[in-house]
């Protein structure tokens, strides 16, 4: 250990990155024993043995070894020192590709080893395009280098590489049969993580350039418990507006108002639903954000109101680089107030980005974030309306003429903090300030309930889930990028950031019809669902690939809207408990060792399994349907046998394999509409997929889809259960949140049963013990009308708001 006084002043991540009051939720420890060599402590089912010399910590859960800290004696500090004439080169200054880092505080790195005994799989530490189960970093290139956490603007990133991308979450989970454990090192400096796997353990070494060791260990035992514990520290996912879970259409750039109108009308002409149309950097006046190019967008308010008349919203891009132009009000106000990041000499930093010479708001300052938030009110952001939301790109931050296309490490922030110390926080703070701006605007538009912000960010850190969604950046129109999107999004969900997506079709390049079809068929399950394309690519709106492809993409996107009640309900659980939307198979089947590394398929919540098609010309595919569950084809309703190993399934271009898990009840809305707003009064369908016991359960969450009224109890949350041939609806009560008081006039118009035993005379339903309705044999969905594998209760008129019971009786 290094004897270093706190007065040295090592940087600590500010408290607003975590949830306020988390310290009060810690459990106390009980001393079990003490010797001259060690002390043993316990809390609940977790036991800690602290060895004094050399220092190490052994943690076990339920008597099973979980984690060893410093068992390899790699906890080391580069302690602060005075400059000496014989110091090695690089201690006090480093040069690289024409850039010089002055390193005024000298070397101050920290190393830490964490060993997971008895484990073979670790997950997490995004963001990178790599496997779900992290590979060893002592292998062949490129995995001979450690995983890096350093937010960067990476151009055309590779599809299989340990190099870090746009965001960083220093969280790792380890899982083995019977146990999941998690660690979180709260440090915002550049970080490297080496992973070495043996037959008996996974060893990791973590190195941060500066800061302190502020290590959290989560020993809940299961993945849901670990993620819930992490959420109590870093926060849960902000409940998004319902529109933001629909389809988003984006391009760099839709040229002008006529182009916007043409694209919007194209969706209606081709009967494809969507919710949001996006404008990239070319909509501005010379890359001056929060402005409009008046020659291209002369009537922005009318344009937004026209979209809103059909239930649609607009998003504009707002990047963190501010054009250095004294006639630009954002620049002049910020310069006068001293709101910009400084260079090492104390002058405003001048970097190069889209507008040319640019300054960067020092969003690490609460005062600067408060000023920035005020710029989004309707009176400040001219041409904006309440239907306009925001996209933060380039907020790593990206500096075209900086080292590694980012800011110099010896730049200075609020509190005289060097950029090296808080680099990975710049993006989340910019994201925070922007989201607070939309909250402020919303509080003035709806004085009572406000308006939930929607701000997409590229850069992120732990805590970003409390602010808004992210996407995986500048991917490519390649099958390999479609494939790697799945483990990338699964990893984000496992590290507390489930509201994420990958650009459908790939940002760079020109996808063909087959790739576009397959990407949409997977993309409808991404929590954030957007199509986007580079300026130099061919136009690729969903109807531009021929009639057959248009029909397939239409079916896929409509499928997303059918699933919105289920997806929105999953987001409510993410909001209250920190649970992921997309889940690896091992999360739902934690004792099935065959699925611990499976990344070719995933669960949507607990009820649906999706198998993407990630190669061209595929007519059959291997699907793993884990044992211990009954599985139903989501198109035909046919039951499939569960096997330990994969089974071969035939596929066509019309759909990818998707399955309902037995034991689940999934709420749907099946009527085709042009947007989520147009669905608001539609009735629901319940898919009741029975398990081997003939039972099932699920829930439905409903609120106004836009405001913060749900925080005062203006919501409805119902639990559905099927047991002993009785389907019941009861109110769901959750600790820590106000009880729901919302009532809605909507009803359930269809109940589809999968797995009821076939009877010659069939079934009837007794509704409320009195009213009898004949059940019919029919299709699960009209997408497969010839497969009559379901038993359907039609038009029962069951109220969503109130308790009821339906008994299924054999005739």
UniProtKB/TrEMBL annotation:
Span of domain Glycoside hydrolase family 31 N-terminal: 32-194
Residue ranges annotated for the Glycoside hydrolase family 31 TIM barrel domain, each copy included: 238-570
Signal peptide feature range: none
Residue ranges occupied by any Glycosyl hydrolase family 31 C-terminal domain in the UniProt entry: 578-666
Keyword Endoplasmic reticulum listed: yes
Pathway in which this enzyme or protein is active: Glycan metabolism; N-glycan metabolism
DUF5110 domain: residues covered: 685-743
Pfam families noted in UniProt: DUF5110, Gal_mutarotas_2, Glyco_hydro_31_2nd, Glyco_hydro_31_3rd
Chief place where the protein resides: endoplasmic reticulum
Subcellular location: Endoplasmic reticulum
Keyword annotations of the record: Endoplasmic reticulum, Glycoprotein, Glycosidase, Hydrolase, Signal
Recorded superkingdom: Eukaryota
Family annotation (SUPFAM superfamilies): (Trans)glycosidases, Galactose mutarotase-like, Glycosyl hydrolase domain
Family classification: Belongs to the glycosyl hydrolase 31 family.
Name used for this protein in its record: Glucosidase II subunit alpha
């Amino acid at each position: 250990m290094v004897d270093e006084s706190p007065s040295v002043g090592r940087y600590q991540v500010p408290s607003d990155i975590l949830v306020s009051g988390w310290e009060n939720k810690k459990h106390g420890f009980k001393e079990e024993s003490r010797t001259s060599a060690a002390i043993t402590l316990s809390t609940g089912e977790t036991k800690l043995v602290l060895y004094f010399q050399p220092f190490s910590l052994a943690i076990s859960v339920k008597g099973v070894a979980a984690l060893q800290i410093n068992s390899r004696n790699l906890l080391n500090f580069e302690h602060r020192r005075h400059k000496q004439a014989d110091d090695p080169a690089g201690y006090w200054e480093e040069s690289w590709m024409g850039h010089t880092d002055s390193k005024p505080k000298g070397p101050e790195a920290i190393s830490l080893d964490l060993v997971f005994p008895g484990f073979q799989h670790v997950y997490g530490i995004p963001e990178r395009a790599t496997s779900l189960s992290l590979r060893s970093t002592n292998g062949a290139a490129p995995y001979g280098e450690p995983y890096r956490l350093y937010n960067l603007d990476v151009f055309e990133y590779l599809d299989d590489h340990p190099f870090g991308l746009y965001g960083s979450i220093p969280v790792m989970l380890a899982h083995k049969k019977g146990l999941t454990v998690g660690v979180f090192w709260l440090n915002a400096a550049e970080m490297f993580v080496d992973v070495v796997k043996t037959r008996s353990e996974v060893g990791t070494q973590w190195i941060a350039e500066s800061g302190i060791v502020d290590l959290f260990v989560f020993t809940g035992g299961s993945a849901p418990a670990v993620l819930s514990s992490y959420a109590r520290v870093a926060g849960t996912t902000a409940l998004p507006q319902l529109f933001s879970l629909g389809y988003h259409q984006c391009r760099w750039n839709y040229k002008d108002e006529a182009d916007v109108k043409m694209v919007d009308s194209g969706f209606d002409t081709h009967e494809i639903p969507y919710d949001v149309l996006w404008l990239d950097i070319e909509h501005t006046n010379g890359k001056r954000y929060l402005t409009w190019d008046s020659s291209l967008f002369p009537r922005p308010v009318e344009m937004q109101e026209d979209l809103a008349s059909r239930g649609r919203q607009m998003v504009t891009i707002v990047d963190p680089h501010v054009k250095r132009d004294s006639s630009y009000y954002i620049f002049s106000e910020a310069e006068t107030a001293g709101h910009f990041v400084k260079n090492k000499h104390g002058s405003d930093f001048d970097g190069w980005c889209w507008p040319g010479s640019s300054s960067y708001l020092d969003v690490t300052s609460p005062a600067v974030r408060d000023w920035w938030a005020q710029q989004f009110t309707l009176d400040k952001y001219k041409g904006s309306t309440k239907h306009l939301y925001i996209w933060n790109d380039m907020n790593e931050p990206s500096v075209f003429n900086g080292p590694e296309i980012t800011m110099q490490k010896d730049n200075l922030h609020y509190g005289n903090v060097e950029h090296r110390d808080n680099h990975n926080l710049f993006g989340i703070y910019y994201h925070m300030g922007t989201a607070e701006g939309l909250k402020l605007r919303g509080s003035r538009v709806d004085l009572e309930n406000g308006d939930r912000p929607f701000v997409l960010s590229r850069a992120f850190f732990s805590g970003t889930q409390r602010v808004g969604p992210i996407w995986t950046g500048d991917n490519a129109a390649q099958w390999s990028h479609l494939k790697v999107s799945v483990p990338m999004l699964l990893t984000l969900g496992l590290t507390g950031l489930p509201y994420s997506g990958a650009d459908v079709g790939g940002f760079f390049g020109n996808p063909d019809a087959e790739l576009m079809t397959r990407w949409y068929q997977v993309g409808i399950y991404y929590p954030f669902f957007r199509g986007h394309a580079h300026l130099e690519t061919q136009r690729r709106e969903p109807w531009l690939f021929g009639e057959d492809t248009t029909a397939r993409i239409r079916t896929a996107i409509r499928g997303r809207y059918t699933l919105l009640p289920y997806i929105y309900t999953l987001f409510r659980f993410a909001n209250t408990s920190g649970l992921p939307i997309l889940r690896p198979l091992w999360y739902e089947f934690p004792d099935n060792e065959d699925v611990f590394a499976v990344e070719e398929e995933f669960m949507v919540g607990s009820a649906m399994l999706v198998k993407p098609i990630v190669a061209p010309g595929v007519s059959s595919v291997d699907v793993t349907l884990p044992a211990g569950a009954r599985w139903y084809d989501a198109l035909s309703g046919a039951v499939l046998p569960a096997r330990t190993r994969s089974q071969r399934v035939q596929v066509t271009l019309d759909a990818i394999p998707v399955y309902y898990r037995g034991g689940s009840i999934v709420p749907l809305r099946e009527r085709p509409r042009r947007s989520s707003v147009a669905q608001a009064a539609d009735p629901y369908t319940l898919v009741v997929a029975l398990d081997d016991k003939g039972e099932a359960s699920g829930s439905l969450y409903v609120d106004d889809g836009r405001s913060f009224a749900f925080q005062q109890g203006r919501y409805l949350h119902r639990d559905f259960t099927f047991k002993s041939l009785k389907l019941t609806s009861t109110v769901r009560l959750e600790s820590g949140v106000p009880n729901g008081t919302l009532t809605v006039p909507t009803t359930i118009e269809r109940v589809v049963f999968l797995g009821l035993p076939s009877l010659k005379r069939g079934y009837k339903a007794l509704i409320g013990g009195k009213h009898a309705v004949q059940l019919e044999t029919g299709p699960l969905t009209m997408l497969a009308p010839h497969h009559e594998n379901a038993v359907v209760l039609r038009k029962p008129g069951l109220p969503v708001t109130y308790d009821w019971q339906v008994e299924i009786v054999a005739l």
